[in-house]
């Protein structure tokens, strides 16, 4: 059907043709594509971010073949999104949007290059596309780097050493070459630190690693580079976030590569696809940006955390195996499957007379790819910045191919149409090739469409077998953490929101608690947002109302140490400080508390429990309707506490402060 439709569409649009009966004549305009007078900027590629933070958390828990299918849709060339760039968070033990990612150096004398999942993800991406470019960027830093201050630049040599260690560890332990390194996501930059970072990179034989700055706004980095020639010499790329397809004059005057180094961040329905289609073209047409990187790669975190489903695709149910290839994946393919880093943009204005835009790229060897988008205003709003009004109308575009393209006779055609009336969008369909007659062809363009016209015949829309249907999180879930050689450092489905909870081998325990889950961050990190003063990891189904949570706990910090288990936990991510729920705390001084908040200020009940540090105890929290009760070591400790809000939420566990503590035999029902 798509091929037939394509035949009709293109047959009708290869020349002016008769006017449509009863319809106003289409707006018509001509556009010339010519390489005779040289080319535009070099195309660097389209990418996506994993991290900032914990956005790929649930992906690693998927069983095969589903996990590999998801990775294929993201990274495999000529399959799905076929991404050119993968940008990852350099974990800093702190909250960075939807969770914390572990650092490779929790403490000054500690190095471990197997924590978290970004190493694994980079290797999986490279396995599918050996040419993919890798970027590392910190959102936060372990507390020891700031020597007690919430600032990474007081001791720039320490910060540079920390970042270099990550780059060297990627190579030594995973054979990964990092191509670009950033400074500090969306926070201040230090010229002194950037220069020192370049010097340290070179000293360690990492001359090939390029520096991006400053992953925030175009200014002040562009202005400072204009007046500081040494800084200008060490920064290779100016990366701006959510630039609204616009750049500034200073950035252009630097002569540097300009990137939208984080963009999109929009719910991944068809409006999200429209946003993505528009900015992929217009970041270059309006802003000279030669790379656009989406936050985020794949929505693999609990949907009720901030910015739920703001990934190119959705994979948030490892327990069921269900995932969804969302429309932004196929919008990406319109560019990525028919271009490569190193191609060049043609020098054209790129604005369509009837609204919308086009870009044209060439490999310099005779190949040509044209990408056209006609996204309407209301169907292409990104989450930020606000989008000024504009209009798009149906139109006829006639292209004249000049220079080395004059001899092109045929163009392959790929088409997407976002249908907001019926909801029946057509995504990345191959239509019949278009004939080019004496360097000329015409195309009738409707609103909310994407076309790729290309000399390349390599494009493919690959489709895996349908994944399993969606299922809620298991209503009866247990984890005893008894795993000798875990494939990842974190237990499945636990989503750390402050602190880091890792598998731990408790060599000193002779009995039932050799393999445990341990909270390991013992100093407040250099934060990116307002982490809680307590540590917390959430798990389960946000819709849960009635539940029983049981866990063995082990307080390691004498005197003022403490731990909790919780239910109906209503918040996380960047809002973790305001988290409410039902929290059952026990402390090393022998007391207990029941609170309705993570901060521990809203006390519902308190008393003596007799718990002590460095001993195992079992806590049970039971919430039914408006009543909660708690057991210690199987015996009732408190009961009939009235709980009103919140009405539902996750289960959780955590600690009173940044302190060591252990958990075992977790069970929620």
From TrEMBL:
Reactions the enzyme catalyzes: a D-galactosylceramide + H2O = an N-acyl-sphingoid base + D-galactose; beta-D-galactosyl-(1<->1)-sphing-4-enine + H2O = sphing-4-enine + D-galactose
Coiled coil, from the record: none
Gene3D superfamilies: Aldolase class I, Exo-inulinase, domain 1, Glycosidases
UniProt signal peptide: 1-23
Any one Gene Ontology cellular component term annotated for this protein: lysosome
One function term, GO molecular function aspect: galactosylceramidase activity
Family: Belongs to the glycosyl hydrolase 59 family.
PANTHER family: GALACTOCEREBROSIDASE (PTHR15172:SF1)
Protein name: Galactocerebrosidase
Organism: Polioptila caerulea (Blue-grey gnatcatcher)
Gene that this polypeptide is encoded by: Galc
């Amino acid at each position: 059907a798509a091929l037939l439709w394509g035949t009709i569409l293109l047959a009708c649009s290869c020349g002016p043709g008769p006017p449509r009966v009863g319809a106003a004549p289409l707006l018509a305009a001509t556009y010339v594509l010519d390489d005779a007078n040289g080319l535009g900027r070099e195309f660097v590629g389209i990418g996506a971010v994993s991290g900032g933070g914990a956005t790929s958390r649930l992906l690693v828990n998927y069983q095969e073949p589903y996990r590999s299918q998801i990775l294929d849709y993201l990274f495999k060339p000529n399959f799905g999104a076929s991404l050119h760039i993968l940008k990852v968070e350099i974990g800093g033990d702190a909250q960075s949007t939807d969770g914390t990612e572990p650092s490779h150096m929790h403490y000054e004398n500690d190095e471990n290059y197997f924590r978290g999942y970004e190493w694994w993800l980079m290797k999986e991406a490279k396995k599918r596309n050996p040419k993919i470019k890798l970027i590392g960027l910190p959102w936060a830093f372990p507390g020891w780097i700031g020597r007690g201050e919430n600032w990474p630049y007081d001791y720039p040599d320490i910060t540079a050493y920390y970042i270099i260690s990550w780059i060297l560890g990627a190579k030594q332990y995973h054979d990964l070459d990092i191509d670009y390194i950033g400074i500090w996501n969306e926070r201040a930059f230090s010229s002194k630190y950037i220069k020192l970072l370049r010097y340290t990179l070179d000293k360690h034989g990492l001359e090939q690693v390029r520096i991006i700055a400053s992953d925030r706004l175009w200014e002040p980095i562009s202005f400072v580079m204009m007046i500081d020639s040494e800084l200008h010499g060490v920064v290779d790329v100016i990366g701006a976030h959510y630039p609204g397809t616009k750049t500034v004059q200073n950035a252009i005057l630097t002569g540097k590569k300009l990137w939208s180094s984080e963009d999109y961040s929009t719910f991944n329905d068809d409006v999200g696809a429209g946003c993505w289609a528009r900015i992929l073209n217009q970041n270059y047409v309006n802003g000279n940006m030669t790379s656009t990187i989406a936050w985020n790669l794949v929505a693999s975190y609990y949907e009720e955390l901030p910015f739920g489903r703001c990934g190119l695709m959705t994979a948030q149910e490892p327990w069921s195996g269900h995932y969804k290839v969302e429309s932004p994946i196929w919008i990406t393919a319109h560019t990525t499957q028919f271009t490569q880093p190193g191609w060049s943009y043609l020098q054209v204005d790129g604005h369509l007379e009837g609204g919308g835009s086009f870009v044209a790229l060439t490999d310099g060897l005779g190949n040509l790819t044209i990408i056209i988008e006609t996204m309407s205003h209301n169907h292409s709003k990104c989450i930020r910045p606000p989008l000024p009004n504009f209009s798009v109308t149906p139109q006829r575009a006639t292209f004249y191919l000049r220079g080395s393209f004059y001899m092109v006779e045929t163009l392959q055609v790929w088409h997407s149409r976002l249908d907001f009336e019926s909801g029946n969008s057509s995504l990345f369909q191959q239509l019949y090739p278009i004939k080019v007659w004496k360097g000329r062809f015409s195309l009738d363009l409707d609103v909310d469409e994407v076309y790729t016209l290309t000399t390349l015949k390599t494009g493919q829309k690959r489709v895996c077998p349908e994944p399993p249907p969606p299922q809620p999180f298991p209503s009866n879930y247990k984890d005893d953490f008894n795993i000798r050689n875990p494939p990842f450092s974190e237990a499945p489905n636990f989503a750390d929101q402050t602190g880091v909870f890792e598998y731990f081998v408790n060599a000193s325990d002779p009995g039932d608690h050799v393999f445990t889950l341990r909270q390991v961050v013992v100093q407040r990190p250099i934060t990116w947002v307002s982490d809680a003063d307590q540590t917390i990891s959430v798990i389960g189904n946000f819709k849960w109302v009635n539940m029983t949570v049981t866990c063995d706990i082990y307080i390691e910090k004498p005197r003022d140490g403490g731990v909790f288990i919780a239910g109906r936990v209503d918040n996380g991510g960047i809002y973790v400080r305001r988290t409410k729920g039902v929290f059952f705390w026990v402390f090393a001084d022998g007391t207990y508390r029941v609170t309705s908040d993570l901060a521990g200020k809203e006390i519902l009940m308190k008393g003596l429990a007799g718990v002590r540090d460095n001993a195992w105890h079992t806590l049970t929290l039971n919430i039914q309707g408006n009543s909660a009760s708690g057991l210690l070591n199987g015996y009732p400790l408190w009961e009939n506490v009235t709980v009103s809000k919140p009405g539902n939420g996750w289960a959780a566990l955590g600690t009173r402060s940044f302190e060591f503590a252990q958990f075992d035999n977790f069970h929620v029902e």
